Amino acid sequence: MYYEDKGAFTGEIAPGMVKELCSTVILGHSERRTYFCESDELVNKKTLAALAYGLRPIVCLGENSEQYELGETQSVIKAQIQQSLAGLNEQQAQQIVIAYEPIWAIGTGKAATAAGAGHVIHFIRHTYAEIYGESAAQAIRILYGGSVTSANIGEFMAHPDIDGGLIGGASVKNDFVEIVRISAEAIQS
Ligand SMILES: O=C(CO)COP(=O)(O)O
Hints:
Pathway: Carbohydrate biosynthesis; gluconeogenesis; Carbohydrate degradation; glycolysis; D-glyceraldehyde 3-phosphate from glycerone phosphate: step 1/1. This protein is an alpha/beta fold.
């Protein structure tokens, strides 16, 4: 989704057009950031445009493997939050969904541990609270994404800091049915 509502931007889809078909948009995915050079500033413009059109943005954050190895996860994530999620009003600050997707875990079969993802998600909520206050930080949902399957979704759902999963590869396999079943069970328990 692009952030302008009209104009000559060949290949892009305006938020008003997306709104006719969808209620939710994924923004700032690492594939968009890497292959399409999307910056935090652009992700921020898209996030604000989505909210203005009543679309719920799922804003993706995450460090790459080098940053992970160097112990830079928190500083990378903090900068992404400050820039990608800047300028939300009080109501908007309660509406977004964040997905923590470490790039080294996407499509690699090497998922983060629930404890590791939970630790970063706890940090994301804390950082978000510093900007938008504790009640907004408690209102938003923060998901984990990266090599989630039916074999590990239970552990992620059982972690108190993780509100759900953003499923990629497994969402187009039969395994997805099992992921949904396990998640629904975890939410009800
Ligand atoms: O990028 C993802 C979802 O947006 C995660 O992808 P995988 O579940 O295939 O690792």
